[in-house]
From TrEMBL:
It comes from Haloplanus aerogenes. This is ArsR family transcriptional regulator. SUPFAM superfamilies: Winged helix' DNA-binding domain. The lineage of its organism: Archaea, Methanobacteriati, Methanobacteriota, Stenosarchaea group, Halobacteria. It comes from the Archaea. InterPro entries: ArsR-like_HTH (IPR011991), DUF7347 (IPR055771), DUF7351 (IPR055775), WH-like_DNA-bd_sf (IPR036388), WH_DNA-bd_sf (IPR036390). Residues 18-96 form the DUF7347 domain.
Length: 320
């Protein structure tokens, strides 16, 4: 019989997080996790014996090493008859350290990449600073969001580990794929940070939307070039993501089939096809209940999808 799921109180108890921080506040314990990670072979899940662990760490005091192992046991380290091994929680902790998210702050100066600005078609530049990836057009001053500097057409989180041993174009491609999968996970209601529930928490619709589409400048009334924006917040880790409603049709099979019927292998993850979003048309059918229709054109035919307040599709139809 499966164990009962943790209660809401257990999941939200801050003492759980405090305990994890306390356990890893000692450098010896962090060294133990790193050593177990280095000894770990994904193809051969063999625990490491105490004597070998002590030798790898260069620990002179076996009693002190055993004390720290006991502290880590049942949280990050599993003790077996054959020795010690990392639990999945321990592996995640080491992976976070290896990603550089917690400690590194690399910077990459702007460099041209082989894609096109989806507003003006020119070649943008890629750069990295403070844990964020920037795509900036050197030809236009598109500003789709008020918080972006002029010319920054895209900005997203990207772990420092993704920069290692890659050229700028390879980094940009890895970032594209990584971001596309995270966005898809959020649309499907699963947090990409902790795998918790990440429902739609609000759909913000500008009451007087007036962006300058000729210059690709945001609306001063809402601070965005996009009329409707959807927010998701994870119920577990509070991770928040906000994106235009125009992204949501990309997850529906009818849209993929619609483009395929017109000879297009639709993949919104590519920068070139992302420009297709600018051709989608939004309609606010009703506010209570909320109903939003997004029309997807291709040649002489239109695919229309109607979404509810949860951004679930409630109707699909095709028309000429």
């Amino acid at each position: 019989m499966s164990p009962p799921p943790p209660s809401e109180t257990e999941l939200s108890d801050p003492a759980t997080g405090n305990k994890a921080f306390q356990l890893l506040s000692d450098e010896t314990r962090v060294a133990i996790l790193q050593t177990l990670w280095e000894a770990h072979d994904p193809a051969d899940e063999t625990p490491i014996r105490f004597a070998e662990l002590r030798e790898r760490l260069g620990a002179d005091d076996p009693g002190r090493l055993n004390y720290h192992l006991n502290k880590l046991a049942d949280n990050f380290v599993r003790r077996t008859e054959d020795g010690y091994e990392l639990m999945e929680s321990g592996k995640r902790m080491v992976r976070m350290l290896l990603s550089g998210t917690a400690i590194d702050d690399p910077q990459v100066e702007p460099v041209a990449v082989d894609i096109s600005c989806w507003y003006c078609g020119s070649q943008p530049e890629w750069s990295y600073r403070e844990g964020w990836r920037y795509l900036e057009c050197t030809n236009c001053e598109a500003r789709c969001v008020e918080s972006f500097p002029p010319g920054v057409i895209s900005k997203s989180e990207f772990p420092p580990s993704g920069l290692r041993d890659r050229t700028p174009n390879e980094i940009n491609e890895a970032d594209r794929i990584w971001g596309a999968h995270r966005r898809a996970s959020i649309i499907d209601g699963v947090c990409p940070e902790c795998a918790g529930e990440m429902p739609v928490t609000s759909v913000d619709i500008c009451g007087d939307h007036q962006p300058d589409w000729d210059e690709y400048q945001f609306c001063e009334n809402c601070g965005s070039i996009f009329w409707m924006l959807v927010s998701h917040v994870c119920e577990g880790c509070k991770y928040r993501w906000r994106m235009p409603t125009l992204f949501y049709p990309s997850r529906h099979p009818a849209v993929v089939a619609f483009f395929y019927d017109h000879g297009i292998e639709f993949d919104l993850a590519t920068y070139e096809q992302r420009a297709r979003l600018l051709d989608f048309e939004e309609e606010l059918l009703s506010e209570d209940p909320l109903r939003i229709r997004i029309s997807v054109p291709s040649e002489d035919e239109i695919l229309r999808l109607t979404f509810d307040e949860h951004m679930d599709v409630v109707n699909v139809d095709r028309c000429k």
